Amino acid sequence: MVSNVRNNPPNTFPIANLATKKKEAAAANYDVEGKGYLTYDQLIAWFQTENEGRLPNLSDLAKFLGKPQHELAVDYLNGWEILQSQWLAGSWKGDFHVDALRDGDYTPAGNVRIGREIGPQFDPVNNRQVEVDQLVFLVDFNLIKLADFDAKVKSATLVIGPAGFPKEHNKAKYGEAVEVPMTLLSESSSPIPGRYGPQGWSPEKKLAAAQIDTGDLAKLAGAAPGLSFYIRLETHDNRVAFVNKDGQPFQNFDVSADELRPAGQP
Questions:
Q1: Is the pLDDT of residue 2 over 70?
Q2: What mean pLDDT do residues 232-256 have?
Q3: Do 193 and 202 touch, CB atoms closer than 8 A?
Q4: What is the phi/psi pair of residue 40, to 5°?
Q5: Which of 81, 99, 126, 227 shows a CA-CA span of 20 to 30 A to 195?
Q6: Is the pTM of the predicted complex or chain greater than 0.85?
Q7: 1-18: average pLDDT
Q8: How far apart (Å, rounded) are the C-alpha atoms in residues 257 and 266?
Q9: How many domains does the chain have?
């Protein structure tokens, strides 16, 4: 069995999550493709325009962008935590296929599920147990070749916002959305041990997962009837593809208001 876990830092910057309308309007000038986010190169160009061409470091960029409008507490997952997501994410949100990754008659596909982790969790930084309430997002690429998943999918980003991605105000160019990098895991098939020898083979794993504080997601939803989300993929040859419900462009997955209720509420 060979496992491969990939944690990718954020490399895109959603314009609708900037702190002020003025910053949103300024950033939109550099989004020449109308994507709704800036790439790292576009962010650098914006910074240099407003800072006499100076090349920034990461601290400079953090100060330049300021505090985001919607803050989400996110857990960055290890391999075991991603595998655990398969048991936590029991709420089926839909199937997908990715036409952009099609190879002849073969089109990669899979399903999207969510779940919730509530209860004690070990905090390795402070070496103690903490109580958590997190929503688990799992993208199961069960119908993609393992070699293609590793060779083609560079990163996966969860794009999530109030149901329907409404605009914050009349002059807003984009709907409200926050981006969360997802952790990728691939694992080859392996023998299942048994009392008298191998009892078959475990299936390959090709997963993308994220865990986000449920209370923060409820704040993001606000008065909307829940959340909408989709997943943006970046390939190793610098293409962009999307995981949409049923493989249909602009068809989003959803999180209902009931799925965001505080723990213990009916």
A1: no
A2: 93
A3: no
A4: -60, -45
A5: 81
A6: yes
A7: 83
A8: 12
A9: 1
Give me the domain span that covers residue 175. 3-8+70-260
Q: Does the structure show a pLDDT above 80 at 191?
A: no
Q: Mean pLDDT throughout 204-212? A: 94
User: Is 106 part of a structural domain of the chain?
Assistant: yes
Asked if residue 49 belongs to a domain, the reply is: no
* Cβ burial, residue 25 (10 Å; 0-12/13-18/19+): middle
Q: What is the phi-psi region of residue 90: left when phi exceeds 0, alpha when psi lies from -120 to 50, beta otherwise?
A: alpha
Q: Would 13 be classed as within a structural domain? A: no
- pLDDT for res 150: 92
φ, ψ for residue 239 (rounded to 5)?
Answer: -100, 160
Is 28 contained in some domain? Answer: no
- The confidence score (pLDDT) of residue 1 equals 57
DSSP the chain: --EEEE-----EEEGGGSSSHHHHHHHHTT-TT--SEEEHHHHHHHHHHHTTTPPP-HHHHHHHH-S-SS---EEPP-HHHHHHHHHH--EEEEEEE-GGG-BTTB--EEEEEEEEEEEEEEETTTTEEEEEEEEEEEEEEEES-HHHHHHHEEEEEEEEEETT--BSSTT-SSB--EEEEPEEEEE--EE---TTS---EEPPEEEEEEEEEHHHHHHHHTTSSSEEEEEEEEETTS-EEEE-GGG-TT--EEE-SGGGSPTT--
